[in-house]
Amino acid sequence: MSKRYAKLGPGEGPNYDWENDHTFVKVSGQDTDGAYTLMEDNLKASFALGLHRHDTHAETFYFLEGAVDFYVDGDWHRCTPGTTMHVPPGVPHACRVADGAPARMLMIFQPSGFDGFLAELATMTEADFADEAKMAELNARYDIVPMGSVPAHPEDRV
User: Fold this and answer.
1) pLDDT value, residue 24
2) pLDDT tens-place string over residues 107-139
3) Are 36 and 27 in contact (CB under 8 A)?
4) How many Å is the maximal CA-CA distance in the chain?
5) What is the pLDDT of residues 68-82, one digit of tens each?
6) pLDDT-derived band of residue 158, with 50, 70 and 90 as boundaries?
7) Which pTM value belongs to this model?
8) In what residue span(s) does the Cupin type-2 domain sit (predicted)?
9) In what order do the strands lie in the sheet with 48-53?
10) Residue 152 belongs to some domain of the structure
């Protein structure tokens, strides 16, 4: 008989070690019948994610370590350990690590799906990433609407 629950320890779960972050899927969409996905994201000192929105899913971020500058709907916020940021569907957002130092956060995607996006990215080649039509189709399938680079931060030197 299979277990009716799941337990993952530190460093366990499907993971994706990218150039700018190392993400662990802690609770997959399969575990929740599509209700949500829970992930741990270890942001490297170079991490930045351009402006984008999701039209049908919400994201909630809980910050564990370090600091992240989070741009949401035109406002910048410094998110430090213990901070929660909830981004409803349709709200543009972007982020970057603060002070060039690593950070760590939990992310909840509701409904689930982002874990599938990462799994597909992990199978792609450099040529796939360079194929604008393929990337547009993948983004559309996973409700990712790119809107540009990370907006200028008030602390940036002009």
Assistant:
1) 96
2) 999 999 899 999 999 999 999 999 999 999 999
3) yes
4) 62
5) 999 999 999 999 999
6) low
7) 0.91
8) 50-109
9) 75-79, 68-72, 93-97, 48-53, 145-146
10) no
15-17, strands of its sheet edge to edge: 15-17, 21-27, 37-43, 103-110, 58-65, 84-87
Q: Does the residue 1 lie in any domain? A: no
Q: Crossing angle of helices 132-141/114-121, nearest 10°?
A: 160
Residue written as tokens 């996006």?
Answer: 117
Domain at 80, CATH number: 2.60.120.10
DSSP code string of the chain: ---SS----TT-SSEEE-SSEEEEEEE-TTTTTTS-EEEEEEE-TT-EEEEEE-SS-EEEEEEEES-EEEEETTEEEEE-TT-EEEE-TT--EEEEESTT--EEEEEEEESS-HHHHHHHHTT--HHHHH-HHHHHHHHHHTT-EE--SPPPPTTS--
- Of 49, 11, 30, 7, nearest in space to 115 by CA: 30
**Any domain includes 85:** yes
Cα distances from 139 to residues 46, 88, 106, 108, 113, in angstroms, run 23, 18, 22, 18, 11
Measured CA to CA, the distance from residue 145 to residue 112 in angstroms comes to: 16
- Looking at this protein, which amino acid is placed at residue 105? M
